[in-house]
Amino acid sequence: MTALEGEALSRARAEAQAAHRALKARLPELDADSIDLILAGARSHYAWTDRPVPVSLLKRIYEIAAAGPTSMNSSPARFVFVTSPEGKARLAKALKEKNVPKMMGAPVTVIVAHDLEFWRELPYLFPHEDRRPHFEGKPAHAETTAFRNGTLQGAYFMIAARAVGLDVGAMSGFSNEIVDREFFAGTTLRSNFLINLGYADESALFQRLPRLPFERACTFA
């Protein structure tokens, strides 16, 4: 992909600005039910029905999540959809014992990973100028950037999944080292966290735990 210049750039910017204004005019904010669906009323789930999740829906979730912002549009997240019995058995090796049934019962478990060499894609993702020198030969900086932005993309993925009607149960009770050995050996990918995905069995839910109030979590400077 090459960067737009001159009249083409001006036209593209004008179209983007007009599209944003039109969207805000059509939908200034989400209604309360929509906010409940994606965050305020959403729950982390631990039990699942056997209703399948079609690949077409996973693609839609990815496309929505991929639209979320990352620094320099770096988009370092990579998603592995574990659906087969063989894949689930491999993943189970990494999980704490109590988390195995949660994962095995989910139609899909997503390994949210990030590519330590995401910067190789920057000429396509950020064509305005070559930003690869910011990361090439700087592994610590590249890893920090990949982890931060990949985590953001994992959160976007969870919200997108809820937005299209799926239920979500994120998990961190596992060994990243084992996951990386099982799924990413010989690559530049590293695991971050897991997302169980499907249609929940709500009978496993318990009461919502408290959140910190604004006054305890937020300050002004």
Q: Which labels suit this protein?
A:
221 residues; alpha+beta; NADH Oxidase; 2 domains; 4-stranded antiparallel sheet; 9 helices; 13% strand
Describe the structure.
With 221 residues, this protein is α+β, with helices and mostly antiparallel strands. The chain has 2 domains: 1-30; 43-202, NADH Oxidase (3-Layer(aba) Sandwich). 44% of the residues lie in helices and 13% in strands. It is built from 9 helices and 4 strands, in the order H-H-H-E-H-H-E-H-H-E-H-E-H. Helix 2 packs across helix 7 (139-163) and helix 3 (55-66) packs across helix 7 (139-163). The longest helix has 25 residues, at 139-163. It is globular and about 60 Å long. The protein starts with 5 loop residues before the first helix and ends with a helix.
